[in-house]
Amino acid sequence: MQIPTRFLLIAAAALATVAAHAQTTRPSLTGKWLGTVAGTDFILHLTDPATGTRTAALDIPEQKVQGIPMQVATPGDSVYLRITQPVAQFAGRRSADGHQLVGEWQQGMRAFAFTLTREGSTTKPAGPPRPQTPQPPFPYQSADITFRNEKAGVTLAGTYTVPADMGPFPAVVLLTGSGPEDRNSTVFGHQPFAVLADYLTRHGIAVLRFDDRGVGQSSGSQAGMTSADYTTDAQAALAWLRAQPGIIKTKVGLVGHSQGGTAATRAAMLPQGPDFLVLLASPSLSGDELIVQQSLALTRLQTTDATLLAAVEKQQRTMTQIVQKTADNAQARAQLSTLYNPTNSTNAQLLAQLEPQLAALLSVTYRDLLADRPAQTLAKVRCPVLAIGGSKDVQVPVKENLAATAAGLKAAGNRDVTLKELPGLNHLFQTATTGAPAEYKAIEETFSPAALQVIGDWITQRTQK
Question: Per the database record, which ranges form the Xaa-Pro dipeptidyl-peptidase-like domain (predicted)?
Answer without folding.
Answer: 153-399
